[in-house]
Specification:
InterPro entries: KPR_N, NAD(P)-bd_dom_sf. Helix content is 47%, strand content 15%. It is α/β, with parallel strands linked by helices.
């Protein structure tokens, strides 16, 4: 008897969708994409990927794709991975899509990875989709990926500029994990981790839901401050005085939100201006030859910048409802406006 081949549907074929699909295909999964009609032409040919890890091109092919969400009902998937940004997921079109996902997966063994980032988004998703709590867990791609056709980032040795220019997407998988999940639904998280790790070239990890949230939510205050500072290198960023001090105070306020529990309080007690600067400078160093801050400037601009701001505003609202003043975060949000 043949071993079952996992079938994965990825919602969205942006940077997160394509890179996740590539690694899942290396792990032996059959991957399909649900994409907007304007993406169909680009997906009709193999995707050329430039890896900053070894400065070579990878060809990703063998996937399928469709553009009509109603087609989900006619297939069976082991996993659905949602890679849309939270703003797209929460608008009217996105909510209709979430309901369609719910109709397709409800009462089945389909496991859902919610890769959109927003405050308490999983609870909203479960309510709108009608899916069971044990079917859905949070996840995000820790691999940094972007389209060289959309933005030109500074080059650092040993990047091969000729190969980079030929790629549809460029990516750097240089952190301890390439994909990260929380344990909101442990069976989902552990099964997906085992599948992803079968790719042999990238690593997926699972952490507690609270620790996941503590790690993700505060970083958006840092991005807001970096935008105000015109995205300086993290090496030496603590010398930016008042703005950096304000950013780290805002980080501590977000860590202290009730949803972050004891891990948040512990993180809050250990967070210092110098410590945050060093931690991010270490990431900046490890990400080379990808330029970390140039990537952040591109990735957190435009629509995503609006989403980041909405997340910070939601943190303010959440904190004030708990009786916290959230003074630093409110000031940072006001300056960012």
């Amino acid at each position: 008897m043949c071993e079952h081949q996992p079938h994965v549907l990825i919602i969205g074929a942006g940077s997160m969708g394509i890179i996740t699909g590539y690694h899942l295909s290396l792990a032996g999964a059959s991957v399909a994409f649900l994409v907007r009609p304007h993406r169909a032409d680009a997906l009709s040919r193999p995707q050329i990927l430039y890896s900053y890890n070894d400065n070579t091109l990878k060809e990703y092919m063998g996937y399928t794709f469709f553009t009509d969400p109603s087609e989900m009902a006619s297939a069976s998937y082991d996993y659905i991975v949602i890679t849309l940004d939270a703003a797209s997921l929460r608008n009217d079109v996105g909510q209709r899509l979430v309901k369609t996902i719910g109709d397709a997966a409800r009462g089945t063994n389909t496991k859902v990875i919610l890769g959109s980032v927003f405050l308490d988004l999983r609870r909203w998703f479960l309510l709108v989709s009608g899916l069971a709590d044990e079917q859905v867990t949070n996840g995000y791609l820790a691999i940094h990926a972007y389209s060289p056709q959309a933005v030109t980032l500074p080059l650092h040795v040993p990047t091969d500029s000729v190969l980079l220019a030929k790629s549809d997407l460029a990516y750097a998988d240089r952190l301890p994990q390439g994909f990260s999940l929380d344990d909101s639904a442990p069976e989902v998280a552990n099964a997906f981790m085992a599948l992803y790790n079968g790719c042999g070239v990238s690593r997926c990890t699972v952490t507690s839901a609270v620790e996941f949230s503590v790690a993700v939510n505060p970083i958006f205050a840092v991005f807001a401050a970096c935008a105000l500072m015109d995205w300086p290198a993290f090496q030496g960023i603590s010398k930016n005085g008042e703005l950096w001090s304000l950013a780290v105070k805002a980080v501590r306020e977000i860590q202290g939100l009730g949803m972050h529990g004891e891990p948040g309080k512990l993180a809050m007690s250990m967070t210092t201006e110098e410590g945050v600067a060093k931690q991010l400078a270490d990431v900046e160093r490890d990400m080379r030859p990808l330029d970390f801050q140039a990537f952040n400037q591109f990735h957190h601009g435009g629509k995503v910048n609006k989403q980041d701001r909405e997340l910070l505003e939601a943190c303010v609202e959440y904190g004030e409802a708990e009786g916290m003043k959230m003074e630093a975060l409110k000031k940072l949000v006001a300056l960012s406006g």
